[in-house]
Amino acid sequence: MSETREIRLRRLTVRSWRRGTKEMDLILGRFWDAEGAGLEDSELDLYEDFLEENDQDLYQWVSGQGDAPVRFQPLIARLTRV
């Protein structure tokens, strides 16, 4: 059975707000609350892949302290605008 969009959005809400580090909870949770429901399915796929990365790498990429993989760069630009 396939997951509905509503269930997927609820699952991603939890994953965005309960990361492992408070910094990433705040960054991803705020982004998700502001933009999550409006993401297209392909953007949700990319966001889920992004969430699979560890918080230390994510923080480095979002804070500009490290270079993110090219495929995540548009998402990170969007994250930092929120």
UniProtKB/TrEMBL annotation:
Q: Which domain of life is it from?
A: Bacteria
Q: Which GO terms describe its biological process?
A: tricarboxylic acid cycle
Q: Which Pfam families match?
A: Sdh5
Instruction: Kindly indicate whether the keyword Chaperone belongs to this entry.
Output: yes
UniProt keywords (A-Z) are: Chaperone
Q: Which family does it belong to?
A: Belongs to the SdhE FAD assembly factor family.
Protein name, per record: FAD assembly factor SdhE
Organism source for this protein? Silicimonas algicola
